[in-house]
Amino acid sequence: MTDEFDGMYDTFKALLDSFPPSEAVKRLEQFGISPDVVAGIRERHEQQTIRIKELEEPHAVVLGNRDTWYTGPHAKDKCWPAIVDLLRKDGWPQEPAVSSLDDSSTRVVSLLNHPKEKAFSTRGLVVGYVQSGKTTNFTSVMAKAADRGYKLFIVLAGIHNGLRRQTQARLVQQLVESNPTMWSQLTGLDKDFTPQENPASYFGKSNKTHVLCVVKKNATVLRKLAQWLEKASNYLEDCPALIIDDEADQATVATKSINPLILSIMSSLPKSAYVGYTASPFANLLIDPSAADLYPKDFVVNLPKPAGHFGTEVLFGRYALDGEDPEQVDDGYDMIRSIPEDDVLCVRPETRADVEGFEPVITDTLRAAVEYFWLVTAARRVRGIGNPHSTMLIHTSVNTAVHNSFARPLTHLRDKAARSLADPGLLSRLRSLWDQETGRVRAEDFGEKGVPFDQLVPELPGVLESCRIIMDNSSSEDRLDYENGPVVAIAVGGNTLSRGLTLEGLSVSYFVRSVSAYDTLLQMGRWFGFRNGYADLPRIWMTDELAGWFRHLATVETEMRRDIDIYMTEDENPLTFAVRLRTHPALRVTAAAKMRDAVTAAASYGGKRVQTHYFHTNYDWLRGNIDAAQTLIAASAANAVRAEARPDEGRYVFRDVPHDFVTEFLSKYRFHEKSPENDADLIIGYIGKRIATADSLRRWNVAIVGNPKGGDFTFAPGVTVGRNNRARLDLKNPDPDFVDIKTLMSRRDAAVDLSGDTTKLAEKAITDARSVQLPDTGLLVLYPIDKVSVPGPEKKLRAPLNAEEHVIGVGLVFPKPQGKDSTVDKYISADLSNVRIEEEDFSLLDGEDA
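Structure (tokenized):
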């Protein structure tokens, strides 16, 4: 009986190739299959769809109860198995790499419409990581969609010819060459779309092949494609189409030309699914969902971070999110090297007027970066494993004349080094550089074997001889070509290198370009990705300001992805959720044109923590905060319903302090201006709203957390605790009046006013306990921090605080609302008046295609 049922289920699966699930069931009933067997088939199919919907990874937010028709590959599939074979040849292990790709691509395909539905227009977004294999994911989605009957595949591949060509080559290799009789191509390696004479030859019923079209986001090209498809409309009624938008945040959103043209292409296709892929979805998630636009109304999929991926957080560290224990949040690897501000003017003209005649100076930091690149390349040759290519990126400006000006000094530096390899002075400098770098980042910590300097020396002549200096920009004929043997290259460029294009074997980056938006900044990070065989060796030279921006961005990115995951578990869909994006005083969330629908953000503090980690170091500023804190504690001691002293733990708790004293403290305490999440006016406004609308937050517990082993700090008569030690992040060229301690508040501190043993409580348990014990009471915690605060020996990326007075840190814990929360508005904007920025150049979007 089981064999018979299995046979009937196979029949049902075969029917799914021609009909959506509901139609396939009707066909079974028409065949006279008994109701019990049909019910069993439906149940088995539902179990398989549940498996897809409930995959641990990737998480997805979905509109409505989409009909999950796709439950995974079939034995007779051709395109997906061919990709698996190629990946295995490239060394991909089945677990976890291939299995994870299989699951994530299956989840995306399951959210598309069945190709045999009469008409559909689906819009989704897939959020990945920079340089994390998004292309492989969407190629897998295309393969599986092709195996099920999707006909036309349009891939929008950035705004530059280099990325379009690279994407075309990848898709031809992974889709076309494996099954050449199954595919027709409208574009080639060296030609973007040009109209074909006879649309029927591609879309007529006699042509069973899949049609591949890889185009740039260029208005001229897209207009030709839109017009050609419009003329072919008679043949497109039964042509299910999948449009993949690679780097979907770039140029697509809110542009006068590209966005309408994509919509025009979709209007010619009665069956179309648009899926954007991006690592920086800030712009895409700020579109007005009700506008005639490409907002991902049907689904948002959050791809998992692949094992071994170098991301923003890994390199730069980040700040603790609500509920995280600061001790569990890493400072990042010691791979960032500081470029002094004085060096910036040597490698980038200050104004546009200075561009003509500009010639860069090889500064000490640029020389060190280039020489380290040669040493890394030699070390990788000694190891003989991993990516055969080795690339260095120099990115100082978008101006092509500036790029070209680097050719002469870099060529001179290379040629002089090649002639001087026997010079004891050069070898001594190289040895010192290598020993210093390998001492700061140990190979063994990454599972690699260290390479002594003496083993590098024999490789250096070959490295220098093969090293090319390439100006990769829109005005240059030079291009990074990884298709014809191993490459060693120092690539100088701007926009052509900053979007999507993979820099193979990227080891060293020298980066001083300032940009104004989260998404642009994140995409500049070509150093993110996989570093198999040399994970210990990458280094990035940049200014301390840029490193700080990336650290902030790592926090924003992590928080945004966590929000998507949270929404997946709640009753939300893409039309009702809004990802919170914390602001930064010198960065926009995305370009102003893309933010026209995102003027304000409603901030809510319910269930959240707020804590300080930026401070000034000057005496007057710090003294003012000490005075505000001492005034609060004196008022708390006099007005609290109960006071609890735990001097052996360095802790005090003043219970049920009237809110007036807390809001008065917040109005006097000065938060650092670089901490927009610590906005006293917003917090005070939120407290007022909660009191007015929910009779909550009228009472507060005010606590002090000190260190019993630290020197004494007195808040009020009889209230003395030991000072905490909080070292600052070690910025090589620090502003003497600025420190960043990165983390302040531990999980245990958020439970300081809870009864019972809270030492081992997890974050959710603390939140739940607060909801039971203190549902309407806020918690304010003060931290006296020693002005010297020397870091421990294991804290390699820290330095002494060295403030002029002791520092007062503040943590706030808000109860989770029992009903609807209150919100206060905050503009998502930034004061860019004093920030020198270079925007992305979008002139290519509307120009004639070259």
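The chain is about 35% helix and 15% strand. Residues 544-569 form the longest helix (26 residues).
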